[in-house]
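Worked example 3. Consider a protein that binds guanosine-5'-diphosphate.
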Amino acid sequence: MGSFRFVKFTKGSSTIDNILSSRILIMPGIVIVGAQFGDEGKGKIVDYLSQDADSIVRYQGGANAGHTVVTGNKKFKLHLIPSGAIWGKKCYIGNGVVFDPEEFLEELDTLKKDGITPNISISPLCHVIFDFHKAMDAAEESARKVGTTKKGIGPAYADKISRHGIRMCDFIDDERLMKRLAMEVERKRESLKLYNSEYNDTADSVFKKYSGIAKKIKPFVHHIIGDLNTQLDEGKKVIFEGAQGSLLDVDFGTYPYVTSSSSCSGGACTGTGVPPMKITKCIGIAKAYCTRVGEGPFPTEIHGKTGELIRERGAEYGTTTGRPRRVGWFDAPMVRYSSLVNGFKEIALMKADVLGGMGKIKVCIEYETSEGKVKRFSSATAETAKPIYEEVEGWENPGDWKNAAKKGFQSLPRGLREFVDYIEALIGCKISMLSVGPSREETLVR
Ligand code: GDP
Ligand code: IMO
Ligand code: MG
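Given these inputs, the predicted complex is written out as structure tokens:
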């Protein structure tokens, strides 16, 4: 092992202490990942755990994310700013994020109107999204539909990998920005021409628009790698907030119908500069059913009335784009796969309230494939895998979930308790948190 210091953790009474203390020697870095296709409720759980955390860092994605936090009668929709901001915790945006400066300033303004001034540091190494990335995203979508959020995510990551990107450290320095734009904007115009897409900006006009914005961003830019590592070395609790979901990961997801980043737990290291030995734990977030926005294979998708019913009951409309989410049954082979590639052995099971009162519920236990029955999802055969279902008895919802959650697990409807045990046995993971409503109070920790 490396030269880092192990921290002996003393058992505390807070939620995050209870979760972390399941290992004796720990470094308290905890990754929260979506175990399905995104929108599982990561924002809610990151907010829930943030009350006891020291800092929260986003490690990939960009403003394609839409993380909802509900407190009292307020609903916050966060796209770039980590969900820990609502508790006033120290927040970071890591190098793995593709950063849209206009979206960030807008989000900051919205939060300020609600009395929240985030304490946030942005890595100088993250790549910046410009209008031309969004134009490219729209142009590519018109030629080949992935169903992207059109936030410029794919083109910005493509520029990063092909070494045409513009990093934050270049963005906030006028001379460096102009130099980089002079090298890149003409090339963008040529690329957009291939799609017959009108793009008339020049390096000068792009500079004119963005140099003022960059001045507003500059005070937030700090070298965050040292800070994050020191915090972990000192035994502070750092939450790595994943965006999207494991099945949207560029390597492990349903390629090409994926996002362009590493949304799985491995991305937490490459996206922050924190080495893997310092990550203690990963928790998967999964709905009691499954949803997907955009194109691509979805083995357990429900067509027709039942799907519509779940969509309406679960308010399954995109937080970022407002698009109706496709709805399907809980897919155990998918979550087993997700557990494997992320390394989580526990999940938070979300939106159990949505399935209450619906009668019998289906769960996919394995797939029928050309190679016979398989128990685990494979990205390579996702298009043709046929789900095999079991049906379980449902449960009636209690009138007041907040009260039910307060009374504890044993007071929940029997059918729901049995469902939790059943899912745990199917996926081989503990359900350490159960969510029965959008608010903080509608959360049970087991
Ligand atoms: P994220 O992208 O993973 O953070 O998830 P989103 O915020 O995009 O979508 C989750 C939606 O479900 C949000 O509107 C949440 O407020 C809501 N939500 C979270 N947990 C629950 C729950 O247990 N029950 C219900 N009914 N809604 C929930
Ligand atoms: P959160 O963090 C659900 C989907 C898009 C599209 C694909 C590629 O809120 O869970 P992109 O704009 O990233 O190039 O789009 O990924 N997608 C999401 N779906 N939740 C998200 O984020 C998503 N971010 C991207 O719908 O299918
Ligand atoms: Mg979302």
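Take a moment to read the result before moving on. The chain has a mean pLDDT of 94. The radius of gyration is 22 Å.
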